[in-house]
Write a structure and sequence with these properties.
Strand order of the largest sheet: 1-10-7-4-2-3
CATH class of one domain: Alpha Beta
CATH architecture of one domain: 3-Layer(aba) Sandwich
Number of strands: 12
CATH superfamily of one domain: NagB/RpiA/CoA transferase-like
CATH topology of one domain: Rossmann fold
Oligomer: single chain
Distance between the termini: 60 Å
Structural class: alpha/beta
Shape: globular
């Protein structure tokens, strides 16, 4: 997938002034938050599960080579084949070679964020294959020729009216000429169209939520069952997964599954939690003839060896995105790549390079909600601060930003000058606020206040002055 992360500022501005997008985001935002809250509140041991999940992921990352080798050996025992991809290009080429060897003409895909990350669809379509997404959200954005705007709800930015128009335009060639408006009717029509795609596909490609080292299983969780059909009906199955998805055993996996559904969609568990471990055996009624797993590094090993290792604990639940005020205001497309929100603001610079995504670490208020709701306790604000530090050291910010930070650094190291400047500033802003008690314009904050925001005016004295006047004591 082509990246446009360097265009974040322009895309964010456009998103803020897009009434259709704002309407769609407003309808979806509270649902995720409330459902997660209710599901978590109903499970007394949720925080204990989080602590255990951190232990599991940290242990696995500490011994990642061991568990990956165990997983490969188990897959081979089950009759499957494991392929290792160092980067996105190698991953694409492996998938293309498998499809060529199978003489495939059509491919169906279950939802796979790592597939989006390495650009599987574009590579296969360039080879002349028909590639059809089977997750309803992914199917919608494929028809719209758009990237996903959320990792668990790819079409969250689409309104019902937009989806109705898409289906009316693209489904006419299958004999569906009536324009539908009800959600249930739209879903049923999509199922009817996709049914023939399942039956005729040569290759099925899915992602994996977890890879179990002890038995070679890959686990996918869905609410539509499309992953099951994609994995069992075609004669060749391909699983694409990042190397960090491996988990030692089934007991550890159940701990993570109890966190995943509650954090992602507010469900105790998703409708389908399916395990696949290899090609069809002689006694099996269905299943693929060939089973391939493509394990993808694409920068993950580098993260394993530096201060960003904790990001590899991510189980792709999307909780940080759902609770992010920045994402809630601009949606996912503004981030310009596969992963939006706080987790994307960390992953994109690490995967594509800080120069390509220099604005993303700054697309955060550092309010800490993402860390608070993360089921595996990733300290996302700390990681974003680390990226900002790297950015400053590499002189990737604007000249104005560098000069501003340098001036601020000079000032705060000189207490007397700092108190004088802040005292003058407080009095000036208090005067500008006047009787209204608030400010509509503040120097250097034009963009922040452009949307009609106001800022309470200071009372005319600084915190230090008030503290000194009270003798260094707070209210009794």
């Amino acid at each position: 997938m082509e990246s446009h992360s360097h265009e974040f500022v322009q895309r964010a501005g456009a998103a803020l002034h897009n009434p259709t997008l704002q309407s769609a985001l407003a309808r979806a935002k509270d649902g995720f938050v409330l459902k997660r809250f209710n599901a978590v509140s109903a499970l007394a041991e949720f925080d204990a599960l989080r602590d255990r999940a951190v232990e599991i992921k940290n242990h696995t990352l500490e011994h990642l080579d061991h568990y990956l080798e165990r997983y490969e050996a188990a897959v081979q025992r089950n009759g499957g084949q494991v392929h290792w991809a160092a980067d996105a290009e190698e991953a694409r080429n492996i998938v293309r070679d498998i499809c060529r060897e199978a003489r495939a003409r059509s491919v169906i895909k279950g939802k796979s964020m790592v597939g989006e990350e390495v650009g599987v669809n574009e590579a296969l379509e360039a080879d002349g294959l028909e590639v059809v997404e089977t997750d309803l959200g992914e199917y919608i954005i494929q028809l719209a020729e758009e990237p996903p705007s959320h990792i668990i709800a790819p079409a969250i930015h689409k309104t019902r009216e937009e989806i109705s128009e898409l289906f009316h335009r693209f489904h006419a060639k299958y004999g569906y000429k009536k324009k539908l408006t009800e959600v249930s009717d739209l879903v049923n029509e999509a199922r009817q169209v996709l049914r023939q795609k399942y039956l005729s596909a040569d290759v099925g490609i899915t992602g994996a939520n977890f890879l179990v080292a002890e038995n070679g299983c890959n686990i996918i969780v869905t609410n539509e069952g499309n992953g099951d059909l994609t994995s069992t009906l075609p004669r060749v199955q391909i699983v694409t997964a990042g190397i960090e998805k491996v988990v030692p055993n089934m007991e550890d996996t159940t701990t993570l599954l109890r966190l995943l559904g509650r954090s992602a969609t507010g469900q105790d568990i998703t409708s389908y939690t399916s395990l696949f471990s290899g090609p069809r055996r002689p006694a099996d009624p269905d299943g693929p003839e060939a089973y391939h797993v493509v394990l993808i590094d694409n920068g993950r090993s580098a993260m394993l060896g530096d201060e960003f290792r904790e990001m590899l604990r991510c189980i792709r639940c999307g909780a940080c995105i759902n609770h992010c005020p920045v994402y809630g205001a601009i949606g996912g497309h503004a981030y310009g790549w596969v992963y939006p929100g706080p987790m994307g603001s960390v992953l994109t610079p690490l995967t594509l390079g800080l120069r390509e995504a220099k604005d993303l670490p700054n697309a955060c208020t550092l309010n800490g909600r993402c860390q608070e709701v993360c089921p595996v306790r990733i300290p996302l604000p700390d990681l974003l601060r680390n990226l900002r530090h790297r950015q400053f050291q590499a002189r990737l910010g604007t000249a104005r930003t560098r000069w501003g930070l340098a001036a601020w650094g000079w000032l705060v190291r000189r207490p007397a000058a700092y108190r004088l400047v802040t005292r003058v500033q407080a009095r000036m802003l208090a005067a500008f606020g006047g009787r209204r008690g608030y400010l509509t314009r503040v120097p250097l904050a034009g963009n922040w206040m452009a949307g009609g925001r106001v800022l309470p005016a200071p009372q005319g004295e600084t915190f230090m002055s008030a503290w000194k006047r009270r003798g260094g004591r707070g209210h009794e």
